[in-house]
Design brief:
The protein is an all-alpha fold. It contains 15 helices and no strands. Helix 3 crosses helix 5 (70-82) and helix 13 (212-219) crosses helix 15. The protein is globular, with a radius of gyration of 20 Å.
């Protein structure tokens, strides 16, 4: 399975809706031999792992209003592959160039797209797909704008790496302004990042975007964090995304 053939298959699935794209994806994969199907699944995983990148995660995290969990970023990478070769390669080379695309997509995730190769294999063999001999990267690549102590989660009780973005300080934001100019401008315009005037009076708390903690307190049952932390993070992300979308539509 060459890279060119892989992307030909992906781009042949393009459709107006995700449901239609899923159906076209299944049709495309059903035409492959078993050997080709396994090779395709391996390439899909390799491309997904290659997109596990701090720079890309930062851009989509901020474009989505400052909420994009580990699970959301995994589903985002399936969505990114589904968009085709040009967007995928641009995202890895210069994620700042895709600020407009990411910000205009209400929910850039496509979890089910990544499941299709395995489903096709099971339908044809009634067996689970074989081990592809790949391991997900332990750490995201990139992120030279992040302090090393933020990247290192060994001493943290929070295993989810998305919390790193909530721990960023002036050093990170100064670097983001330099390295991601389109992202910075977008965040300033939308109020996602607010630059304070040291001579200005304190802001009225009603004028700022709600923090995730405030959203959790008002909309998400905090007891869920004790029983199903992944579900809690997802509920928190969904609630925040709706609030940010509502506020953006009013601007």
């Amino acid at each position: 399975m060459t890279t060119e053939r892989f992307w030909q298959i992906i781009e042949a699935t393009s459709a107006p809706t995700q449901e239609e794209q899923l159906e076209r994806f299944k049709v495309e994969l059903q035409q492959l031999s078993m050997q080709e199907l396994i090779a395709f699944a391996k390439q899909f995983a390799e491309f997904e792992f290659a997109a596990y990148n701090w720079d890309l995660w930062l851009v989509v995290w901020l474009c989505q209003g400052g909420m994009f969990s580990d699970d959301s970023f995994s589903d985002f990478r399936s969505w990114l592959i589904s968009r085709g070769r040009e967007m995928y390669e641009t995202a890895l080379q210069d994620p700042d160039a895709l600020v407009e695309d990411f910000s205009q997509t209400d929910n850039p995730t496509f979890e089910r797209f990544g499941y299709v190769p395995g489903q096709c294999y099971r339908e044809r063999t009634e067996e689970e797909a074989p081990d592809l001999g790949l391991s997900h990267p332990m750490e995201p690549a990139g992120g030279n704008w992040l302090r090393p102590q933020l990247k290192d989660r060994t001493g943290s009780k929070m295993l989810n790496r998305c919390v790193v973005f909530r721990e960023m300080g002036d050093e990170e934001f100064d670097a983001i302004e330099r390295q991601f100019p389109r992202l910075w401008q977008y965040c300033i315009q939308k109020g996602i990042i607010r630059v304070r005037d040291p001579n200005a009076p304190p802001e009225d708390s009603t004028e700022r975007l709600p923090t995730p903690e405030e959203i959790a307190k008002s909309l998400v049952d905090p007891n869920l964090a004790n029983t199903d932390f992944q579900a809690y993070l997802k509920a928190l992300a969904d609630a925040a995304r709706k609030e940010y979308s509502r506020r953006n539509s009013q601007q």
